[in-house]
Specification:
about 190 residues; alpha+beta; Bifunctional nuclease domain; 2 domains; 6 helices; 7 strands; globular
C-alpha cells in the first residue's frame, strides 16, 4: 500500500477532502478567536466619559473639488468659535460627504452606509469621531464606539470617519492644537 492509501484507511480521507476540512477548521478557529478577542476588548475598556477637554467640536463647513494636483478639499469649522481645519481628501470620500450634506441617497448603499449597518447590527454606537493628530502631512482620526458597558477607539481616516459621522449624526471633534496651528500649515495636507 502506498502512503495515500494508508492515510485513506486511517480515516483521514483523500488529500482533497483533507485540504477542504483543514481550511474549514482554520476558518472556524479564526472566527472563534476574533469573536473572543472582540468580546474581551469590549469587556476591558471602561465606559466612555465623553471627549477629552483638549478637543473642540467641529462641523463640516464645505467640501469642494480641487484641481488635479490638490484633490478635493474638506473644511471643518469649530462649532463654538471661528477656527477652521482644511484637509485634502479623496474623490470617493468627497462624493460620500457631499451626498450626505445635500440630503441625497445613492441608489445602492455606499461603503459608509455598509459600515453604519454593520455597527448597528453589532448593537454598537459611534459616540464621536476625533481627528487626533497630524504626522508627515497626513491627518489621523479615531471612531469612538460604545457597546454595552464599554467603549473602544478604532483607527480611521478622517474622511471616512466624517462620512460615517454625518450618516449617523455623531459629533466630530478635532484636537485643539490642530485648529490652533492651521494657519502655519501648508494647504497640501492629506486626509
Amino acid at each position: 500500500m502506498g502512503m495515500e492509501q494508508d492515510d485513506h484507511l486511517a480515516g483521514a480521507g483523500p488529500p482533497e477532502r483533507r485540504r477542504s476540512r483543514g481550511g474549514l477548521v482554520s476558518l472556524l478557529i479564526g472566527l472563534a478567536v476574533v469573536a473572543l478577542a472582540g468580546w474581551a476588548l469590549w469587556q476591558r475598556v471602561p465606559d466612555d466619559a465623553g471627549p477629552p477637554a483638549d478637543y473642540a467640536e467641529v462641523q463640516v463647513a464645505d467640501v469642494r473639488a480641487g484641481d488635479e494636483r490638490a484633490g478635493h478639499v474638506l473644511v471643518l469649522r469649530e462649532v463654538d468659535g471661528d477656527r477652521r481645519l482644511t484637509m485634502v481628501i479623496g474623490e470617493a470620500e468627497a462624493y460620500a460627504i457631499a451626498l450626505q450634506l445635500a440630503g441625497q441617497r445613492p441608489p445602492r448603499p455606499m461603503t459608509h452606509d455598509l459600515l453604519r449597518s454593520a455597527i448597528q447590527a453589532l448593537d454598537a454606537k459611534v459616540t464621536r469621531v476625533q481627528v487626533t493628530r497630524l504626522e508627515g502631512g497626513t491627518y489621523y482620526a479615531a471612531l469612538v464606539l460604545h457597546r454595552g458597558h464599554g467603549s473602544v477607539e478604532v483607527d480611521a481616516r478622517p474622511s471616512d470617519a466624517i462620512a460615517l459621522a454625518l450618516r449617523i449624526g455623531a459629533p466630530i471633534y478635532v484636537l485643539r492644537s490642530l485648529l490652533e496651528g492651521e494657519r502655519q500649515r501648508a494647504p497640501s495636507l492629506t486626509f
